[in-house]
Design brief:
TIM Barrel, 12 strands, two-stranded antiparallel sheet, 8-stranded parallel β-sheet, 8 helices, alpha/beta, globular
């Protein structure tokens, strides 16, 4: 069963509207597509790649209208919401006012540092600073899971995007984050966008996926598509990676309830 739940449109930082993304999913033979535009409540102000915070009703209504007129691919309503400890209660309050099929929890900004914006932001860091960023990222990922606000973990090892890696052992922090994800009943995505980044690796890597499988953490394959042509990129590689890690199934969602289906 082919699905793609991590997708972005012109509601946030995508290049196409929701209808074109649905049409692309239909042409690619996907059973379901989820639209999950960015919703970012920062401690200071909304980042430019987030939808306006007061547009959730319009966003949801548009997706409902498009879903009613879809051909064969089902459209699921989601969000990608950033985790900030300072705003998590406000985020929880806002999300509770609306109905979604799933919420992706991600970390793009850590202590004011934009993890995936440009490689130049990493270039100026010392190796010791890079190590600290990675360590604090996994600590924050455990907090994200412990909030129990999210359904799916977005790009678990996003810090590797520009191929700046830690030189310290972070296995304890990674395992703690995976334990928190397991305790929260969350799904971890195999995000195929990483293969198109300098890291040349899906998020997360095989070792993390194997450890997730040992904890019975379910997976979902998603393309993190920002354009129609990316809607199912690298899916054959992702299925092979999932099988290598020991998976035979993935999850889909309906009104924030997990449904287990076979891998494609």
């Amino acid at each position: 069963m082919l699905v793609s739940y991590h997708t972005h449109t012109i509601w946030s930082d995508g290049t196409s509207d929701s209808k074109k993304m649905l049409d692309a999913a239909d042409n690619a033979g996907l059973a379901e597509i989820g639209i999950s535009d960015h919703f970012v409540m920062t401690p200071s102000e909304t980042e430019c790649w987030s939808m306006p915070l007061d547009f959730l009703d319009e966003y949801i209504n548009e997706l409902k209208n498009i879903a009613e007129n879809s051909k064969s691919t089902k459209l699921k309503i989601g969000l990608e919401a950033d985790y900030f400890p300072q705003t998590i209660n406000n985020l929880k309050s806002e999300l509770s006012k609306h109905s979604f099929d799933y919420i992706i929890g991600s970390i793009h900004i850590l202590d004011g540092f934009h993890l995936d914006e440009t490689a130049e932001k990493w270039t100026g860091k010392t190796q010791a600073e890079i190590n600290i960023i990675w360590r604090n990222y996994y600590l924050a990922m455990a907090e994200l899971a412990a909030s129990k606000l999210f359904d799916i973990v977005g790009h678990f090892d996003l810090c590797k995007k520009f191929a700046f890696y830690p030189t310290i052992d972070l296995s304890a922090q990674i395992n703690n984050a995976l334990d928190a994800i397991s305790d929260a009943g969350m799904t971890i995505e195999i995000n195929t966008a990483g293969w198109d980044k300098p890291a040349k690796s899906a998020y997360p890597d095989i070792d993390i996926l194997i450890n997730a499988r040992r904890r019975n953490i379910p997976i979902i394959i998603s393309a993190d598509a920002h354009a129609p042509e990316e809607i199912s990129r690298h899916y054959e590689k992702a299925v092979k990676l999932a099988i290598q890690a020991g998976y035979t199934q993935q999850t889909i969602y309906h009104q924030r309830e997990k449904i287990i289906v076979s891998l494609p």
